[in-house]
Amino acid sequence: DAMIFYDKTLALSDVDNVKKSWALLGKGAGYYLKNDYHNAIKTFNKLVTTYATEYSQLVWAKLKLSDIYTEQNKSDDAIRLLDEIILKYSVYKEQYYLALFKIGYAYYLKNDKQNGDSYLKKLIDVFLEVKRVLKKDGKFFVNLGDSYASFGRVGGDFQGDTGMDIKRGRSRIKKGTYPAKSLMMIPEHFAIEMIERGWILRN
Predict the structure, then answer these.
(1) DSSP one-letter code for 164
(2) Which phi and psi (to 5°) does residue 165 adopt?
(3) pTM of whole model > 0.85?
């Protein structure tokens, strides 16, 4: 029924481009839910190249396209779109943070895990924005686990679908300067970096 409504909206000659772009976004999402990725990609691309009258529509369409490419094991295409969102549309905070999460998953699927320093830097950059908008008497809680160093590829004692270490229940990050199998002290490094940037560590 929703797809019929979107088609009728798109067929009306007196409907402006704003309504048409929202109809295309809904139609593309409908195709996506039906696992009709061919028509979903076609619809979202039409929105991106022709009808996107608001940046928020453009961003949502690219996010959905990245989901499709990720599910099709086209991680490079997904990363390209997510990079555009992160670099150009950071003003849309909800979509920006969602893109950060999705790009991390896309890199994970490529077995291209970040080293600990790169991971920390991205966290710190995100939380600097949190600090900027937090009330003066506000509180911010972070639940952050540690990781064992490895060579950044899924190994024999890993669960392939999750990337979690079955024996220890912890994920691994590309080892960088840490010896393999060593805890990387990420929560401790994170706490120190946050304090140096003006946060107060209470517990």
Answers:
(1) B
(2) -75, 115
(3) no
Read off the amino acid at residue 20.
K
- Number of residues assigned to the chain: 203
pLDDT grade for 169, boundaries at 50, 70 and 90: very low
Q: Which residue has the higher pLDDT, 90 or 151?
A: 90
Q: What is the pLDDT of residue 177?
A: 60
- The separation between CA 70 and the C-alpha centre of its own chain, rounded to angstroms, equals 11
Unique residue bearing structure tokens 């060579």: 151
CA nearest neighbour of 172 among 187, 152, 145? 152
β partners of residue 183: 148
Q: Please, what's the b/e burial string for 28-61 (b: 16 or more CB within 10 A of its CB; e: otherwise)? A: bbbbbeeeebeebbebbebbbeebbbeeebbbbb
